[in-house]
Amino acid sequence: MPGRQSDYTVVQQIGVGSFGTCCLVKRLADGQKFVWKEVRYGNMREAEKESLVREVNLLRDLRHPHIVRYIDRIVSKSSSTLYLVMEYCAGGDLAQLIQDRKQKRLAGRLNSMVPQEFVLKVFYQLLQALKELHLNQQGKILHRDLKPANVFLTSAMGDVKLGDFGLARVLSSEVSMAISYVGTPYYMSPEQVAKMRYNESSDVWSLGCLIYELCALHPPFTAKDQKELYGKIKKGEFRRIPHAYSDELFTTLSSMLKQNPEQRPTVQSLLQMSFINPSIMPKP
Ligand SMILES: CN(C)CCCNS(=O)(=O)c1cccc(Nc2nc(OCC3CCCCC3)c3[nH]cnc3n2)c1
User: Could you say which of 93, 145, 164, 203 is catalytic?
Assistant: First the structure.
C-alpha cells in the first residue's frame, strides 16, 4: 500500500544522484528517519516508465542485511515525480570515508590507513550483497554501478549496505545516462571499455577496484582523462596496495582485476575464502 507525501516531513536535502534529488526525511507517525530519492518521470518514454515500475517492484522485494532496504514509494502525479523511500544509513558513504582518510594522510596524521579488519568486513558484506543480487530468485540482478558513493555505512566504521543500483540501469535514457555518468568511470572493466557484455564478473572487477581503493585510498587505475584511463585499464598494470595489507588480500584483489573476465573468481568462490568469510574454517 503506497504511502503519501504528507506521511513524511523533509529534514534536509542531502545531495543529487543519477536519479535526481535525495532528501533526509522523517516519518510523522514515529519520527523515524529515511531518505527519499526523487525520480522525475515526466520526460520518460512509456518503455522507460514500464522499466522504472519493474525496477521499483524488484527493489521492493529485495530484503538483505547488506542491501539498502526499500521502504515505500509515493507517486505525485501533479509533479510527475516518484519518491522512493529507503532506509537511512547514518554513517554516510564509503566515498566520504576514503576522502576523510586521504585528508588525514595529507595532514601527515599517523592513523590515516583503513584497518585491514574493516576492509575485510566490507569485502565480506559486499560479497554477500552481490550473491543476493546474482542469485536472486526472480532472475540475476547485476549491480552495474558499484562504487564507494553507492556503499553506505549504518554508523561510523559500522556495517555496510549496497544502494542505488537498479536506478542507474532504469535511467538508461540519454538524459539520465548523461547524469549517471558524471565523474570519471575509474571502475570500468576492460570488457565495458571494449563495449562487450556486462555480467557478474564485471561486478567482481568493480568490487576489486572498490576494495583496492579502500586500502590504497586511490583506485587501481587513475589518469588525467578518459582516453588515458581506458588505456591503463586495458593494459591492466597497478601497484601493490600498501604493505600493511596482507599478501593474501593483494593476491585476491589481483585475481579480481584479471583482464579476462573468465579468469576472475566468482562471488561464490570468494565467499569460500577463510580470510574473508569468518564462517569458513582455515585449511590445516
Ligand atoms: C557522495 N558522497 C561523498 C556524499 C557525502 C555523503 N554524505 S551524504 O550523502 O550527505 C550522507 C550523509 C550521512 C548519511 C547518509 N545516508 C544515506 N545516504 C543515501 O544516499 C545519499 C545520496 C546518494 C546519491 C548522491 C547524493 C547523496 C542513502 N540512500 C539510501 N540510504 C541512504 N543513506 C548520507
Answer: 145
